[in-house]
Amino acid sequence: MKPKLIFRLFPLLVLSVLISCKNSSNTGLSKNVTGKAGELVVVISDEAWEGNPGNTIRNTLAQPHLALPQDEPLFDLIKVPHEAFKSIFKTTRNIVQTRISPNVDSEGVTFKDNVWASPQAVVIIQAKSEDEFEKLFEENKSQIMSYFIKAEKDRLAMNYEKYFERGIYNVLNDDFGLTMKLAPGFQIGEQKKDFIWLRYETPEISQGIVIYTFPYVSDSAFTIDYQLKVRDSLLKANVPGPTEGSFMATERRVEQFYNFRKHNGNYASEMRGLWRLVNDFMGGPYISLAELDAANQRVVVAYGYVYAPSKDKRNLLRQIEAMLYSMKLNSQEENDKLNEQQIDIDIQPENV
């Protein structure tokens, strides 16, 4: 009997970044970070928070998260005045600490890891005036945003390094020539040659990952149209919905966000958007990672989705993203040698 798309919950982002600013670490800390996933404390005066500096921070760090069905902020900002920034807040996982004063000795943006707890991400911004603060923040906003997004993903990845579904890890290693660390409780929903559907479900919420491979025969394998064609064909055949004739598919009526990157040194692409059930009413966000396995002349795709009606989906999707990016190819040593030859694929990024 074919598995139905019944959804349960596993109870537990966009940019990679090279930080050129100072980045320091205190490895002797014994305190663990506190706060919920996605929370970020902003230490700032009331006047600055209500003025342009606060608007600048909110416009970047509380902007809507990419490719979710409902608006959710990139981070949940918690404003804390300087005088209230005591020990209870100092262990928060993400902190922006501001100082806007003519008495500032050295203006700039500093990135620091593990200042009061671990694993913690702290950004310190010092400026002599509000105008200078805005200028500094605007100049560094991409690095600031990427730094905190990466910190969130790295914390999840650390958890999965310790606790992961070993049965699925072994199946992927033996049958697909790759490994991936999925949270405990994931189960196999369907497995065929070069295709596997993995899922963790509760009656209310679902997280799932589909992994499949196809031959790499030309650069067109890394175009949006080709990847959507392959994905939707496989989803239609292998991921049915709960009603007769329903199946999972990409929601084509909204934009797919697509970009190229390196993953473990291999050529790769990331796509984000929404999925839906054809002939039914379910849907939600997805993220996919397509990676070139040049040693085996194939493309490996890991596609992850979330179903959470009437619930926030940002953190659930970030969990899926961290699992996807734990993927490692068994042929990586051979791929490293090929990557040293600088194999280039000339494809222009596009959105549809």
In short:
With 352 residues, the protein is of the alpha+beta class. The protein is built from 8 helices and 16 strands.
Write a structural description.
Pfam families: DUF4837. Keywords: Signal. This is DUF4837 domain-containing protein. 28% of the residues lie in helices and 30% in strands. The protein has 352 residues and is of the alpha+beta class. The chain folds into two domains: 139 residues; 177 residues, Mog1/PsbP, alpha/beta/alpha sandwich (Protein Transport Mog1p, Chain A). Strands 8, 9, 10, 11, 12, 13, 14 and 15 form an eight-stranded antiparallel β-sheet that branches. The longest helix is centred in the middle third of the chain and has 33 residues.
